[in-house]
Structures are given as C-alpha cells and as structure tokens.
Amino acid sequence: MVMARREAVRDAKRRPGADASGARAKALLASRDEFWARSVEHLCGPQLVDRTVVVLLHFPVPEEKYGSASLSQGRVFVARFGPHRYRVWWVHH
C-alpha cells in the first residue's frame, strides 16, 4: 500500500495548479471496506475490487486559501496493474 500512496501523491502533484507539498496519505484496501468495495464495483466491475487501494489525501494548506477545509482533502482509487506498477484510475474528490 506504500506504493499506492506514493502514486496518489505523485498524481496529485501533476495536476494543474495543485499544491501537494506536504501531502499526507492514508491507504486502505477497497476489498476490506464494504462502502468502498461497492463503489469500485459500481464504477468498473468486480474484477478491480481486489486490486484497488483507496487513498485518502490531506493537503496542509491554509483554510483561507480555499475557503473550505474539505477542499484540502481528496480521495483517489489506485490499482495495481503489475508487480510494481500502480496507477490512479479514479479521482473521487
């Protein structure tokens, strides 16, 4: 899951206008959480549920910059597409 977290942060840094410096990430397997497993299955079918990691991101930016604390948070779905290859396939927020 460490590689999935790294890929999620790298992906956030590549987004235009994003300030992902100091981002913190928490990861959990979609298959171990009923809500996320159903979400993944709904989006692309059951075959990806066991390979998907849900990464919860928090960007430490001042609330004044975005006007809302929730805008400094994000959720992305990262899947394993090979032994050491992870890719963000859905940006939830």
Characterise the protein shown here.
The protein is of the alpha+beta class. Helices cover 30% and strands 32% of the residues. It contains 3 helices and 4 strands, in the order H-E-H-E-H-E-E. The protein has helices at 2-14, 34-44, 63-66, and strands at 24-29, 52-58, 73-82, 85-91. A 4-stranded antiparallel sheet has the order 1-2-3-4, with helices on one face. Strand 3 (73-82) and strand 4 form a beta hairpin. The protein is globular and about 40 Å long. It starts with a helix and ends with a strand. The model has no long low-confidence stretch (mean pLDDT 85).
Question: What's the helix and strand layout?
Answer:
Blueprint: H1 2-14, E1 24-29, H2 34-44, E2 52-58, H3 63-66, E3 73-82, E4 85-91
Antiparallel strand pairs: 1-2, 2-3, 3-4
Sum this structure up briefly:
This protein is α+β, with helices and mostly antiparallel strands. Helices cover 30% and strands 32% of the residues.
Could you give the order of the helices and strands? Answer: HEHEHEE
Unreliable residue runs: none
Helix content: 25-40%
Number of strands: 4
Globular, elongated, flat, extended or rod-shaped: what is the shape? Answer: globular
Tell me the Rg in angstroms: 13 Å
**What average pLDDT do the residues reach?**
85
Strand share of the residues? 25-35%
Structural class: alpha+beta
Q: List the strand order in the largest sheet.
A: 1-2-3-4
Count of separate DSSP helical elements: 3
Main β sheet profile: 4 strands, antiparallel
Distance between the termini: 20 Å
